[in-house]
């Protein structure tokens, strides 16, 4: 066992001992759960947080912690339940609203996500992740113009938000602004050279711009990055037959 892992085990054992002796120690359980989240053990965190919930079911932040932990393990239905509860206890809790919006997007409930994220904007309008989530929800219901505005706003707040940059490029592609989409996607490649989706969408844009040779060149790069994926193979077949 490495020195770091040994320290982690010691901390876990100390928390377990405290919780075993002090049955009503709410704070110890919350701190223990937070420690578990910090080391990526979200299932264990949920168990401890729920022990704390038995001691105090009026603390909105505890419901938020449970909801966020569920979202981290992609159990979005439970995440939505606990994040809704957190918001019902504290109407200014925009962090719960942000995670709730993301969870609704992950379950393809885009209209609900837009409604929730709009509530979050009323509390905090300068959270770039909120604007990104808002844009993704709009993009998925084909409201491309408003999605573009949302992604541009996210990038104004954080120019290094490459996920927003990627979705902005996709939105430009949907708008048939292929040259602009290529320009944006190339910025992604400056950061992540082997970004399969960026390469594929650049190839698609070149195809639509009737530059088949460039499209073929880039599709071959896609195949080198991941030959198991079918998108590049299928588009290459369409171009060459």
Your description of this structure?
This protein is mainly alpha-helical and 241 residues long. The protein is built from 14 helices and no strands.
Throw out a few tags for this protein.
241 residues; elongated; mainly alpha
Write the layout of secondary structure elements.
Blueprint: H1 3-21, H2 26-38, H3 42-55, H4 60-72, H5 76-89, H6 94-106, H7 110-123, H8 128-140, H9 144-157, H10 162-174, H11 178-191, H12 196-208, H13 212-225, H14 231-240
Please outline what is shown here.
This protein is mainly alpha-helical and 241 residues long. The chain has helices at residues 3-21, 26-38, 42-55, 60-72, 76-89, 94-106, 110-123, 128-140, 144-157, 162-174, 178-191, 196-208, 212-225, 231-240.
How are helices and strands ordered from N to C?
A: HHHHHHHHHHHHHH
Using the CA coordinates, give the radius of gyration: 22 Å
Average pLDDT for all residues: 96
Q: List the total number of helices.
A: 14
Strand content: under 5%
Give the overall shape.
elongated
Largest β sheet strand count, sense and barrel closure: none
List how many beta strands DSSP finds: 0
Q: Output the structural class.
A: mainly alpha
What is the terminal-to-terminal distance? 57 Å
**Spans of at least 5 consecutive residues with low confidence:** none
Residues in helices, as a percent range: over 70%
